[in-house]
Amino acid sequence: MTEEPQEPTTPFPSSTAGPLDALTDVAGLRVGHAQVAGAGALSGTTVVLAPEGGAIAAVDVRGGGPGTRETDALDPRNLVQRVDAVVLTGGSAYGLDAASGVMAWLEEQGRGVRVGPDPAQVVPVVPAACIFDLGRGGDWRARPDASTGRAAVEDAAGTESEAPVTEGAVGAGTGAVAGQLKGGVGTASVRLESGITVGALVVVNAAGSVVDPRTGVLYGEYGAAEPPVHPAPEVHRAAQRRLAEARATEVRPPLNTTLAVVATDADLTRAQAQKLAGTAHDGLARAVRPVHLLTDGDTVFALATGARQLDPRNPIALNDLLAAGADVLTRAIVKAVRAAQGIDSRPGGGNCPSYSDLYGSHRPPARPAPRERPASDSPPE
Fold this sequence. Notes:
Blueprint: E1 15-17, E2 30-35, E3 44-49, E4 55-61, E5 68-69, E6 82-83, E7 85-89, H1 98-108, E8 113-114, E9 122-123, E10 128-130, H2 146-157, E11 177-178, E12 181-182, E13 184-192, E14 197-204, H3 233-249, E15 259-266, H4 270-287, E16 299-308, H5 318-339, E17 343-346, E18 350-352, H6 355-358
Parallel strand pairs: 7-10, 15-16
Antiparallel strand pairs: 1-13, 2-3, 3-7, 4-6, 4-16, 5-10, 8-9, 11-12, 13-14, 14-15, 17-18
Helix pairs in contact: 1-2, 4-5
């Protein structure tokens, strides 16, 4: 007897997706990607660039094999209050060097913690975390470095405010995998009734699975506002056979890690931001099973730009943001897996089909686009 999939629930709190359904719906945040060049390269870097003046930042690390840089600086007990950028990168611990390129670019802009009388005397604090993707393109040494980080932050700086974010196998998601499927970058956002926005950006590179093996439905689609659409049984059986074939060719252990940035335009304290980072992990646990393993380094950063105040009359107003942070991270994971394109062959690492390769005709109901008002409906001036 198989367990019945859980029934969809009404999202809490009441909210709607932001205009872009992306992290950049949080005004002032920009996202840039860069890939490592070369035929044998499947790696890259993604940078989230904060607005001028930085953003309150926090982090929660729950995976058993994390690779991070400057995360201790985000402890609410420590000196640094704001950061100007967060780096998500491939290349395992080698790839953390990408943060050096971001740091150098920020110094040139005069952005960072001022440590001397001259405004140019700054030390940018650039928290970073990495995924394991070494050798997935065939070249073990094809990994991000300082130049990759610089290219990613320049890409972010070159975008307009509230610009769309490219999803799929880009930036840090270039070589990402999700269980036996191709992973990648995804993003989502909600706008709460209060007007506060919460967004998430994720690099899905999980040792666990994102797909229910009984049905072929992405785990993250259970509990969403719309009931999941189940693939046809014959499509699911064919997908399971193909995944079994891919599993048989895998010769490396599942060393992975899922990384995320959850951000809001609310004015949070550092302790509140850390709580947001922690509860956002619930969204990861809904979409990936199992999660937070010894071979994962699952890390969630939180950013708060401070543009909107929480309701001072409501002592638990933060609850709405905590619930929304988990919800948007789940949706961002679903979007990442759906946007990814499969890899026909990973030298030394087997095949890695995408979800769309296996269930290409299976799509959830599309979110309707806003209706444009015809000219004849326009109110008279």
